[in-house]
Design brief:
Elements (H helix, E strand, L loop, with lengths): L29 H19 L6 H8 L3 H29 L1 H18 L6 H12 L4 H12 L2 H35 L4 H8 L1 H17 L8 H7 L7 H9 L2 H10 L3 H18 L4 H13 L4 H41 L3 H25 L8 H23 L7 H16 L6 E2 L3 E2 L12 H6 L4 H5 L4 H9 L24
Antiparallel strand pairs: 1-2
Family: Belongs to the major facilitator superfamily. Nitrate/nitrite porter (TC 2.A.1.8) family.
Keywords: Membrane, Nitrate assimilation, Transmembrane, Transmembrane helix
Membrane topology: Multi-pass membrane protein
């Protein structure tokens, strides 16, 4: 006797993914996964950039040169390059819950050890190992793509990623405040900054246990249980890896993401020091101004995800791609202007505008990522996320390491790089949906089913391993947009079902 279908608080499609996104709900498993993912990612972001707003104090204590500070900034984002790719594979094989919590717990000791850094080398090392935790971004996006259906997946990814990224701005406020409270209670400043690191370390640790205890990998259960019951196939890592790495669309998104999220990481590392030094501000004021850059994620990245879903309803995947290109290019324009503005008030205004567009582009990017591959979603997410960190490393190496360029010149050149590295979006093409300049293929087999099932071998299909991809192809028909050609796009294909 078959068990009755599960009941959910939110309406779902044939994969039991939620077709609605209710921000203020904590209903299990969909919205609970959302809140656990963004809070844990937020905690990791706070830890990774906790040192940035305290650099003026730390550099005096450890005798750091500008090169030392630049190297530490690079170290904080470089570790996550390979960690993000590995995290994507781990999500595909073990599930986002276990993969995320494990990494958070493995990197928490590095945050605690920040308090005992005693030299430029040890400071660089703790920032390097702490930065690995930024790979939780991949598990966040994978988790949302596993829980939410095509019409709202951009929104879910955008809000979860954006609110997690808020940690980059929040830490600009939190760490100076914590430092100030400790110092005002009679602790010397060179000891106060060390004690302050226990706050993000503890927060990060607690978030990992929350994910383990309250989280669930998929709408129907955890990976281990689903594989044990036979409801989920035990996939082969080699094929998951292969189909992810051979899909050129993932590589293009990795490059372009390097110049929206990568730029955001680079700016998080230098913006407080930039305002502190250029406009002769005190530490607290510089931190507040710098915080506004990261805090724009409260609405900018979520706005990008929401915008991606809105344009997709009318123009499909082509609308998602065009909107991403326009928004990210405008971000590059504002970045160029930021480097040219010489007044404090003007710099703040332009910085906020720059942050809104560059962060919205991040949300727009992950409105596209879930559709690149169904079988290798984690690998493609990891590649794209890793590209963000590569962009941050390259940007800091070229423009913000040492004294070759002033900060303002580096910011201007970074803006030019954003515009240039966004152009490859023109090359992305989906046979079933088209690209920015071309419509969908007229071939009879250019369908969602053909695209996603091509990732499975015939012997795997015989065993039914492709069923999840088949359901996903049915639910992604919405990416054709509002205008459907009745000749080349039959209207009687299976549409998403609500359970």
């Amino acid at each position: 006797m078959e068990s009755p279908p599960p009941e959910f608080a939110l309406p779902v499609d044939s994969e039991h993914k939620a077709t609605e996104f209710r921000l203020f709900s904590v209903a299990a498993p969909h919205m609970r996964a959302f809140h656990l993912s963004w809070v844990s990612f937020f905690a990791c972001f706070v830890s990774s950039f906790a040192a940035a707003p305290l650099v003026p104090v730390i550099r005096d204590n450890l005798n750091l040169t500008s090169t030392d500070i630049g190297n530490a900034g690079i170290a904080s984002v470089s570790g996550a390059v390979f960690a993000r790719v590995a995290m994507g594979s781990a999500c595909d094989l073990f599930g986002p819950r276990l993969a995320s919590a494990s990494l958070i717990l493995l990197t928490a000791p590095a945050v605690f050890c920040s308090s005992i850094a005693s030299s430029p080398t040890s400071f660089l090392l703790v920032r390097f190992f702490t930065g690995f935790s930024l790979a939780t971004f991949v598990s966040t996006q994978f988790w949302m793509s596993s829980m939410f259906s095509a019409p709202v997946v951009g929104t879910a990814n955008g809000v979860a990623g954006g609110w997690g990224n808020l940690g980059g701005g929040a830490t600009q406020l939190i760490m100076p405040l914590v430092f100030g409270v400790i110092r005002d209670n009679g602790v010397v400043k060179f000891t106060a900054w060390r004690i302050a690191f226990f706050i993000p370390a503890l927060f990060q640790t607690l978030s990992a246990f929350a994910v383990l205890i309250f989280g669930q990998d998929m709408p129907d259960g955890n990976y281990h249980g689903l594989k044990k019951s036979g409801e989920k196939a035990k996939d082969k890592f080699s094929w998951v890896f292969y189909y992810g790495f051979t899909n050129y669309r993932g590589w293009i998104l990795a490059l372009t993401y390097g110049y929206c999220f990568g730029v955001e990481l680079a700016v998080d590392n230098i913006i407080a020091e930039y305002f502190y030094d250029r406009f002769n501000l005190n530490l607290s004021t510089a931190g507040i101004i710098a915080a506004s850059f990261g805090l724009a994620n409260l609405f900018s990245r979520p706005g990008g995800g929401i915008l991606s879903d809105i344009v997709a309803k009318r123009f499909g995947m082509r609308g998602r791609l065009w909107t991403l290109w326009v928004v990210q290019t405008l971000g590059g324009v504002f970045c160029i202007i930021l480097g040219q503005v010489g007044s404090l008030s003007g710099s703040i205004i332009v910085m906020v505008a720059f942050s809104v567009f560059v962060q919205a582009a991040c949300g727009l990017t992950f409105g596209v990522v879930p559709f690149v591959s169904r079988r290798s979603l984690g690998v493609v997410s990891g590649m794209t996320g890793g590209g963000g960190n590569v962009g941050a490393v390259v940007t800091q190496l070229i423009f913000f390491r040492g004294s070759k360029y002033s900060k303002q010149t580096g910011i201007t050149l970074m803006g030019i790089m954003i515009i240039c590295c966004t152009l490859p979006l023109f090359l992305i093409y989906f046979p079933q949906w088209g690209g920015m300049f071309c419509g969908p293929s007229k071939k009879a087999n250019a369908t969602e089913e053909e695209y996603y099932l091509s990732e499975w071998k015939s012997n795997e299909k015989e065993k039914g391993f492709h069923q999840a991809s088949l359901k996903f192809s049915e639910n992604s028909v919405s990416e054709r947009g509002g205008k459907v050609d009745s000749v080349t796009r039959p209207s009687d294909e299976t549409s998403p079902a609500n359970v």
